[in-house]
Design a protein that fits this description.
The complex is a heterodimer of chains A (265) and B (258). Chain A is 52% helix and 9% strand. By secondary structure, chain A is mainly alpha-helical. Chain A folds into two domains: 189 residues, no CATH class; 61 residues, Alpha-Beta Plaits, CATH 3.30.70. In chain A, helix 8 crosses helix 9. The mean pLDDT of chain A is 91. With 258 residues, chain B is of the alpha+beta class. Helix content of chain B is 36%, strand content 11%. Chain B has eleven helices and six strands. In chain B, a hairpin with a 5-residue loop joins strand 4 and strand 5. The relative contact order of chain B is 0.11. The model of chain B has no long low-confidence stretch (mean pLDDT 90). The chains are: A mainly alpha (265), B alpha+beta (258). At the A-B interface, strand 2, helix 2, helix 3, helix 6 and helix 7 of A face helix 1, helix 2 and helix 3 of B. Chain B: GO terms for molecular function: 4 iron, 4 sulfur cluster binding; metal ion binding. Chain B: Keywords: 4Fe-4S, Electron transport, Iron, Iron-sulfur, Metal-binding, Repeat, Transport. Chain B: InterPro entries: 4Fe4S_Fe-S-bd (IPR017896), 4Fe4S_Fe_S_CS (IPR017900), MauM_NapG (IPR004494), PSI_iron-sulfur_center (IPR050157).
Chain lengths: 265, 258
């Protein structure tokens, strides 16, 4: 059945986080203070971005225990529910890139980069970010991250960050389909690795599949759907963001959220 | 089986990616931190460590009750998302409960920096910078009564004192000259904001930009502790054979022959 219930739910959650963070800054709410790099819930529980903390550690600084534990907690949560659930359910950049993705489909923009860009690029950038962090003694991705600039632009009302967000948007729209989230973002790469063996996965039922290819149309991580129509199994790739778009568009009920407990690859 | 050609190609590609990418990335980091100096919140680690440690969450900015602290934006030349303040706009009012330092989750702002010898952390131990006076643009040094910075200073008569001097130009007035004491000054910048000059004649610079260093080859002979050092140095020199040879080299015959 066609529905957009997961998309609506995702937007509500994404916007709620932004709203709470922004409220924390502008009105002093203590529900959620800080931003996506590090935050504190109800003035008592620290949460931190494990990738940011990893960069800090590599740059040669032993972060305080509150940040380390906060990062560990987030790490464990995403290892359990699927790393890239951050990408599609929390990350504010996802709203921007999803709009670009949708506009591409609506206006049938088929432009692709002249050179083929591998989806593995993000893992190389991830590795490079750690090298640069170590060499320059500074969390390398954090300093240029368009995601951080976006949420800081919203939460702290700074203007200059929007320029780079616009760059991401137009690259996604005109240069490379799913360019940022699907190819470049090292944070997405990081969470792909974290969520490899997560418990929440989309499950495909080959028997129900009519090969309509609708799911391929909406998926920002197309290659993860390689088993669709071929065998009944979980979408096992860590790159799957669990966004639920394939479930929404499938007229045959061949996709659904499911729990996976085995550790096969 | 991967061909040798393929392997070599892969290695070269990898090298170009790491080299080229690293270079561009490094350049953008440099461009992002190109500001000559930046003033950090109280309790900040040394700039180099601070840049490593800060996770850019902005919690210090949020809890600052005076909106003193700001997060750096692209284009500021200050590492994106790190907190700083500009005293001429809003100085630090030295909250006694140190909310910013206390809120930092990463340790980039550390209460230990504000703690001296096992005591409680104290905002007055902060060294965000040091106020420096440019005499030529300071009205008080012209001989006009001003004292704006002195009156504004939260550590009046400690961090800024007034020196009296005869105004030689008039021959009948006194100059009341503000003087900053670096052992007390916290670098809060209230003076900089208070200065009546169009461009502040008293302004805060980071400690390393505003301080000199004598080195250890001068000794304050009038201070007992420092005087001890001279004896230690002499003892050390006695142990050092090279010193003896250095003194004796003039008596060396070879020197004359050359």
């Amino acid at each position: 059945m066609k529905t957009i219930k997961y998309t609506i739910l995702r937007r509500i959650i994404q916007l709620s986080f932004l709203f709470l963070f922004a409220g924390g800054n502008y009105f002093g709410w203590e529900i959620l203070r800080g931003n996506y790099s590090s935050a504190i819930i109800a003035d008592s529980l620290h949460l931190s971005d494990p990738y940011a903390v990893l960069q800090i550690l590599v740059s040669g600084f032993i972060a305080s225990s509150s940040v380390l534990l906060g990062a560990l907690l987030i790490f464990l949560i995403y290892a359990l529910i699927g790393g890239r659930m951050f990408c599609s359910w929390i990350c504010p950049m996802n709203i921007i890139t999803d709009i670009a993705f949708r506009l591409r489909r609506i206006f049938k923009i088929e432009t692709e980069a002249k050179v083929s860009v591998s989806r593995n690029l993000r893992y190389y950038i991830l590795a490079l970010s750690l090298i640069v962090s170590a060499v320059f003694g500074m969390a390398a991705f954090e300093i240029i991250s368009p995601i951080s600039m976006l949420h800081r632009a919203i939460v702290f009302g700074s203007g200059a960050g929007w320029a780079i967000v616009a760059v991401v948007f137009f690259v996604d729209l005109f240069v490379l389909k799913a360019g940022w989230c699907g190819h470049i973002c090292p944070l997405g790469g990081f969470y792909s690795l974290v969520g490899k063996q997560a418990v929440i996965k989309v499950k495909h039922d080959k028997e129900k599949c009519t090969h309509c290819m609708d799911c391929f149309d909406v998926c920002v991580e197309e290659p993860v759907l390689d088993i669709v129509g071929k065998k009944s199994d979980f979408i096992r790739s860590g790159a799957c963001t669990n966004c639920g778009r394939c479930i929404e568009v499938c007229n045959d009920n061949a996709m659904k959220y499911s729990l996976k407990f085995d550790l096969k690859n | 089986m991967v061909s040798r050609r393929k392997v070599i190609q892969r290695v070269l590609e990898g090298a170009v990616f790491v080299g080229g990418g690293g270079l561009i990335w490094g350049k953008s980091i440099k461009a992002n931190t190109k500001a000559d100096y930046v003033l950090r919140p109280p309790g900040a680690l040394k700039e180099k460590d601070f840049l490593k440690a800060c996770i850019k969450c902005g919690q210090c900015v949020e809890v600052c009750p005076y909106d003193t602290l700001k997060l750096a934006e692209p284009g500021d030349g200050i590492a994106n998302g790190t907190p700083f303040f500009e005293p001429r706009t809003i100085p630090c009012y030295l909250c006694t409960d140190m909310p910013c330092t206390d809120s930092c989750p990463s340790g980039a702002l550390d209460l230990k920096v504000l703690t001296k010898e096992e005591e409680k952390p104290d905002i007055l131990n902060s060294k965000m910078g040091l106020a420096v006076i440019h005499k030529e643009s300071c009205l008080a040094y012209w001989g006009i009564r001003c004292e704006a910075c002195y009156r504004a200073c939260p550590l009046i008569d400690k961090a800024i004192t007034l020196d009296y001097e005869v105004n030689k130009r008039t021959g009948m007035h006194a100059k009341l000259l503000p003087v900053v004491h670096s052992d007390v000054c916290t670098g809060c910048g209230v003076c900089e904001q208070a200065c009546v000059a169009e461009k502040a004649a008293i302004f805060v610079l980071p400690l390393d930009k505003a301080t000199g260093e004598v080195g250890d080859h001068y000794i304050k002979g009038w201070e007992k502790e420092d005087e001890k050092r001279i004896n230690e140095e002499v003892e050390k020199a006695d142990d050092d054979k090279d010193v003896k040879s250095a003194i004796d080299y003039l008596n060396d015959d070879d020197l004359i022959e050359d």
